């Protein structure tokens, strides 16, 4: 197979098609968007992952991104702790692998207009930094409306919050709990 020539302009053009999300005022590409960009440029390319370690609830993955002919475009590593976030309670290994893939694709130039870090990594870092502080009033109101829409009424929201988080209103929810609820609602 002949090596496909991809120029910087091709990467730039593909990056412009990616959807990003706002995290604290900066735009970040999610891993799925980086994979999409990779497949647009290298439809027959490969992404491999390798678990480097998984001991005492701490996982490390390495990912490598290859062209169709096996040329390495980028590598990335990631580290996750079991139970460090809601998603990591059940899926820290998968989350770690996905983060490593996102970083490898970032090193290959995909989805990096503002940062190598993926949206998921930045969100997790923010949660870990200020996860135990209470959400602000705006988030509490938005969360309440979203929960009413999903659960049906105020009584169902109170029951959900009481059973799951031992609180009786959204203003008592921490940033970490808020992130968990948002992920559940997706």
Task: Write up this protein.
By secondary structure, this protein is of the alpha+beta class. It folds into two domains: about 10-130, 2-Layer Sandwich (Enolase-like, domain 1); about 135-185, no CATH class. Helix content is about 50%, strand content about 20%. It has seven helices and five strands; from the N terminus they run αββαβββααααα. It has a three-stranded antiparallel beta sheet, covered by helices on one side. It has a two-stranded antiparallel ribbon with strand order 1-2. It starts with 7 loop residues before the first helix and ends with a helix.
Short description:
The chain is built from 7 helices and 5 strands.
List the helices and strands and how they pair.
Layout: H1 8-16, E1 20-23, E2 26-29, H2 31-41, E3 46-55, E4 58-66, E5 72-81, H3 86-107, H4 119-130, H5 137-151, H6 154-165, H7 175-185
Antiparallel strand pairs: 1-2, 3-4, 4-5
Helix pairs in contact: 1-2, 2-3
Supply the key terms.
Enolase-like, domain 1; 49% helix; alpha+beta; three-stranded antiparallel beta sheet; elongated; 186 residues; two-stranded antiparallel ribbon
CATH domain topology of the largest domain: Enolase-like, domain 1
Q: Which CATH C-level class of the largest domain is it?
A: Alpha Beta
Helix/sheet category: alpha+beta
Biggest sheet, strands in spatial order? 3-4-5
CATH architecture of the largest domain: 2-Layer Sandwich
Please give the largest β-sheet: 3 strands, antiparallel
Rg on CA atoms, Å: 19 Å
For the residues shown, what is the average pLDDT?
85
Number of self-contained structural domains: 2
Topology as a string of helices (H) and strands (E): HEEHEEEHHHHH
Tell me the number of strands. 5
Poorly predicted runs of 5 or more residues: none
Strand content: 15-25%
Distance between the termini: 41 Å
Helix content: 40-55%
What's the helix count?
A: 7
């Amino acid at each position: 197979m002949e090596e496909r020539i991809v120029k910087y302009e091709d990467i730039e053009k593909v990056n412009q098609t990616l959807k990003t999300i706002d995290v604290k005022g900066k735009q970040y590409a999610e891993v799925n968007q980086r994979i999409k960009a990779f497949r647009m440029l290298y439809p027959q390319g490969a992404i491999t992952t390798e678990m480097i370690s998984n001991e005492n609830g701490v996982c490390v993955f390495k990912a490598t991104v290859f062209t169709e002919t096996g040329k390495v475009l980028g590598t990335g590593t990631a580290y996750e702790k079991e139970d460090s976030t809601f998603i990591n309670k059940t899926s820290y290994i998968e989350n770690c692998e996905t983060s490593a893939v996102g970083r490898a694709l970032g090193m290959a130039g995909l989805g990096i207009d503002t940062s190598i870090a993926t949206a998921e990594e930045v969100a997790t870092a923010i949660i870990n930094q200020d996860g135990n502080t209470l959400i602000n009033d705006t988030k509490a109101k938005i969360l309440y409306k979203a929960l009413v829409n999903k659960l049906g009424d105020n009584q169902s929201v109170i029951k959900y919050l009481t059973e799951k988080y031992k609180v009786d209103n959204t203003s008592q929810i921490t940033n970490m709990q808020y992130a968990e609820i948002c992920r559940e609602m997706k």
